[in-house]
Specification:
Chain B: This is Xanthine dehydrogenase family protein molybdopterin-binding subunit. The complex is a heterodimer. By secondary structure, chain A is α+β, with helices and mostly antiparallel strands. Chain A contains five helices and five strands. In chain A, strands 2-1-5-3-4 form a five-stranded mixed sheet, sandwiched between helices. Chain B is α+β, with helices and mostly antiparallel strands. Chain B starts with 15 loop residues before the first helix and ends with a helix. Chain B has a seven-stranded mixed sheet, with helices on both faces. Classes of the chains: A alpha+beta, B alpha+beta.
Chain lengths: ~160, ~800
């Protein structure tokens, strides 16, 4: 039986009629057309689909769209400022070459923002443990960790360190 | 002033803007009006006769448009997926090459082999209906592991391939090796397994087929590293569609690591089915389906022996390897355990005689083909483990033993006994840089500290050399490649001075849109933002062999340089005409074209405009336009090389191995973008560490069921499994035969890392009398090894 699901996505109210079994990630990608959120696995392991639901990071392949009814959802498309200025975490990933193929990147950035929101000055080990739920096959995590540390500093209002060691 | 976006600058990547904001366009992000969805029915058995398929109930399910089978493809004369490389056995007979149909026809040969495809209005409907397709299987006994498949009486994967032997190949001089072993003062021996891996790019494979009834043109959008190769293979061999009616697009691709080189059956099925159902057909693999159907990597079982004289000089190397091909030959499969493996067995050493035998075997498992490094990690792992064993047995320091046997820089170019000619390399220099980086001399003190804390500590080396820049077409052809392996480029200046570069290389994470633009910016002084790099679309690019084997810059970049040479020659002609000077007097530098000895000059922008507004060109001598195309075929392979050092600490109570330090010193020739190069090394290292410590693809040896079929069972390296790295490179040994002097960096990390880690692990465990451990060194495996051995101290 189709049901109606309504939520706010990146500040815009949306409402769609969907099958009950529709996952939040499918809703975002296929119903709303926001394809920045990716599907990298089917066992909630890879984290490519991480979005924020009411300010908390969620693997959107692990949540039904109906469970997000009434929620405020932010996807990677909604992270930068309205004028296009990158979020400090996005800027840090670019500055420190924290992405290669880009497929895990949206989930990685959304997880990193949540991590830093909860742990404003993480150590390298905390960053590594905090990103345990996001798999990247390209970067070897070295530059992701650097980017998240720099992004954390920038989110605190600090300036970004140069990428060079 | 140096160009801030030129060669050598750590230019921040241009492609990142779209990837960081969710605006990348991957295949599954594309949806077409009227699009239908394909879901495959796959064999749940490793080996089974397909006695019949009843699709009646599935056809009645909501939204179902078609259920198609191998019989339908046969009726439409769809061909077999071709293999791109032919190997001949010792006796001169060609390899066995059984047919590999996109959908199995009479027998399923691995768990996941496609048996039917359901096409429906929605993906969910197709998935539901796929459950209703009734396949009458008769399960057959399966040949799962390579060694068992070779045994007499093993189940036959293909009826006409006796003993499941695809080929029995060899390389090198057996008699010279036997003679050298007869003279040896010491022989080091090792049996080792290079375990099967799953490449696992983060984007699952996907394919979207379209057919335009008005023009008769087919379009395939696919997750490919080489769309032109897919067009050629699928068009000419599988579906019989001529190139001018077949467009293949590989848009943003989320990683490849080799697994997206090959032409897969699903690509042919959606292309064929789109015409059949008259609507676009999209298929996207679920991750579990990827585990079952993406080509796997490695899977070698080897015995190796190294002969040394009394001073530790290597006299000869003897290797016998059994390589698992899986159920069918994937596109590049036969080349991996042969010409990309045995030819690298000299490594960095001047071993005068080498002989390798390789048996390739069919089994009831998914095909095995190139995975990052592709043959070269297997070669490096074998040599470097064996050298470490030799060092331990002879008591010669492992760094010193390597140094003693290095091919000296002065001996370059160096002809190995296994068919390659190294152009450049200073292996001692790599080692000299690496030793202080890891404080080799301080190891004993660090070990003492570990011991105080109840831990074990080990340090391990791996030196590697790889043949990249694949490949010189003449050599590749002589070795069995059925295609040339050059690359194409087109450099098009537009009237107002901006540039579009069309490249046959494909970027799926490597950053070509940045690196290639740096080449153009450097050469012509054009601002980098005015250079567009176009790749991945057969309708735009002249031709392309794609990206694999660390070839994009060495081959694709060189093609761009060659096209830029042609642009410059043409620009000089135009400048000579405009400045009323002799063409020979025009000098080009940083985008300015100067009449030698005068202050008369033009910019490339001035010239580009004139090229397209040629009101007074002498048309007999000078054509309008500034748009040049080039094909570059390398003269030799390139030979990146390096020295990797790993230090580990092991908790003997839990078996947990922690990589506490890892340094990589590499010679990639000239470096265009150090930021990107270092990123490639980091990623490669973690794939190598993953193989050494975590990853293992396991099939049940009896039933052939894939036991590691998800990320919950197949252990991918995560951020907290690995350390940060110390990465250094030097540019003193540029490649001598390509115009950029570049060697390639994409696979290096993976080639060196597993051997370095395992050497460190075995070193740490050596006090228990452990001389070898097969990968991956999981806590359980290390713990078991410790439990089954006695500490040397206790035994004394």
């Amino acid at each position: 039986m189709p049901c109606t699901v309504s939520m706010t996505v990146n500040g815009k109210a949306v409402s769609r009629e969907v099958e009950e079994r529709t996952l939040l990630v499918t809703f975002l990608r296929d119903q709303i057309g926001l394809t920045g959120t990716h599907v990298g696995c089917d066992t909630s392991q890879c984290g490519a689909c991480v979005v924020h639901v009411d300010g908390r990071s969620v693997k959107s392949c692990t949540m039904l769209a109906v469970q997000a009814d009434g929620a405020a959802v932010t996807t990677i498309e909604g992270l930068a400022a309205a004028d296009g200025t990158l979020h400090p975490m996005q800027a840090a990933f670019r500055e420190h070459h924290g992405l290669q193929c880009g497929f895990c990147t949206p989930g990685m950035v959304m997880s990193a923002v949540d991590l830093v929101t909860n742990h404003p000055s993480p150590t390298e080990q905390e960053v590594r443990e905090g990103l345990e739920g996001n798999i990247c096959r390209c970067t070897g995590y070295h530059n992701i960790v650097k980017a998240v540390m720099a992004g954390a500093e920038a989110m605190q209002g600090g300036t970004m360190k140069a990428a060079a060691e | 002033m140096a160009n801030p976006n030129g060669i050598g600058a750590p230019v921040r990547r241009r492609e990142d803007a779209r990837f960081l904001t969710g605006r990348g366009t991957y295949t599954d992000d594309i949806n077409r009006p009227g699009q239908t969805h394909a879901v495959f029915v796959r064999s749940p058995y490793a080996h089974a006769t397909i006695r019949g398929i009843d699709a009646a109930e599935a056809m009645q399910a909501p939204g179902v448009i078609a259920v198609l089978t191998g019989a339908d493809m046969a009726a439409d004369k769809v061909g077999s997926l071709p293999c791109g490389w032919q190997i001949h056995s010792k006796d001169g007979s060609p390899m066995k090459e059984p047919p590999h149909f996109p959908i199995a026809r009479d027998r399923a040969r691995y768990v996941g082999d496609a048996v039917a495809v359901v096409i429906a209005e929605t993906r969910e409907q197709a998935k539901d209906a796929a459950e209703l397709v009734m396949v009458d299987y008769e399960e057959l006994p399966a040949a799962v592991t390579s060694l068992k498949a070779l045994e007499g009486g093993a189940p036959q994967v293909h009826d006409d391939v006796g003993g499941n032997l695809c080929f029995d190949w060899h390389l090198g001089d057996a008699a010279a090796v036997d003679a050298a072993f007869a003279q040896a003062a010491h022989v080091a021996k090792l049996d080792l397994i290079n375990q099967r891996l799953v490449p696992k790019a983060m984007e699952p494979r996907a394919a979207l087929g379209e057919y335009d009834r008005a023009t008769g043109e087919h379009t395939l959008t696919t997750t490919s590293q080489n769309p032109h190769v897919i067009r050629l293979l699928m068009g000419a061999f599988v579906l019989g569609i001529p190139e001018h009616k077949l467009r293949v697009v590989a848009p943003d691709v989320g990683g490849g690591f080799g697994s997206k080189i090959f032409h897969y059956g699903e690509e042919a099925v959606v292309t064929w089915a789109a015409k059949k159902v008259g609507r676009p057909v999209k298929w996207t693999a679920e991750r579990s389906e990827s585990f079952l159907t993406d080509a796997h990597g490695r899977d070698h079982v080897s015995h190796a022996e190294l002969a040394l004289d009394k001073d530790g000089n290597f006299l000869a190397l003897r290797v016998a390897t059994v390589a698992n091909m899986g159920a069918y030959l994937s596109t590049f499969a036969p080349s991996i355990p042969t010409y990309l493996y045995a030819t690298l067995l000299a490594g960095q050493y001047k071993t005068p005689a080498i002989y390798a035998e390789v048996k390739a075997v069919f089994t009831n498992t998914v095909p095995v083909d190139a995975y990052r490094g592709a043959g070269r990690p297997e070669a490096c792992y074998l040599i470097e483990r064996l050298v470490e064993v030799a060092a331990a047995e002879t008591g010669i320091d492992k760094a010193e033993l390597r140094r003693r046997n290095f091919v000296p820089a002065a001996a370059m170019p160096y002809q190995t006994p296994v068919a390659l000619q190294y152009d450049t390399g200073d292996f001692a220099k790599n080692l000299d840089i690496a030793l202080p980086l890891v404080d080799y001399d301080g190891f004993a003190a660090r070990k003492a500290d570990s011991v105080r804390r109840g831990k074990l500590r080990g340090i391990g080396f791996a030196t590697y050399i790889e043949a990249c820049g694949i490949a010189p077409s003449n050599i590749a052809g002589a070795l069995g490649a059925r295609a040339g392996l050059y690359e194409s480029a087109e450099v098009r200046f537009h009237p107002t001075g901006s540039v579009t570069v069309f490249t046959g290389s494909h970027s799926h994470g490597q950053g070509h849109e940045t690196t290639f633009a740096q080449l153009v910016s450097e050469r012509f002084g054009v601002p980098i933002e005015n250079v567009e790099i176009v790749h991945g679309d057969t309708s735009k690019i002249p031709f392309g062999m794609g990206t694999y084997g660390s070839r994009s810059l060495a081959v694709g970049g060189s093609a761009i340089v060659k096209a830029m040479d042609k642009v410059e020659r043409k620009a000089k002609k135009i400048a000579a005409h405009m400045l009323e000077a002799a063409e020979a007097d025009i000098e080009a530098k940083d985008g300015r074209f100067v009449v030698a000895g005068t202050d008369k000059s033009l910019t490339i922008g001035d010239i580009a405009l004139q090229a397209y507004v040629p009101h007074n060109f002498p048309l007999d001598e000078l054509e309008p336009g500034l748009d040049e195309q080039a094909f570059y075929d390398p003269k030799n392979f390139t030979y990146p090389n390096g020295c990797h050092v790993c230090e580990v600490e092991i908790d003997p109570d839990t078996g947990v191995v922690q990589v506490v330090n890892f340094a990589a010193v590499d010679d990639f020739g000239r470096v265009i973008n150090p930021l990107i190069v270092e990123g490639q090394v980091h990623g490669g290292l973690v794939q190598g560490i993953g193989q050494a410590l975590l990853e293992n693809c396991v099939y049940d040896p009896e039933s052939g069921q894939l036991l590691t079929g998800s990320y919950m069972d197949y252990c991918m390296p995560r951020a907290d499994d690995v350390p940060s790295f110390t990465v250094r490179y030097h540019e003193d040994q540029p490649c001598t035969h390509n115009p950029l002097g570049v060697k390639g960096c994409g696979e290096a990390g993976t080639i060196g890392a597993s051997a370095a880690v395992m050497n460190a692990v075995v070193h740490a465990l050596s006090e228990y009398g452990i001389t070898h451990l097969d990968m991956p060194a999981t806590p359980e495996r290390v713990w078991q090894a410790i439990r089954h051995h006695t500490p040397a101290q206790a035994a004394e």
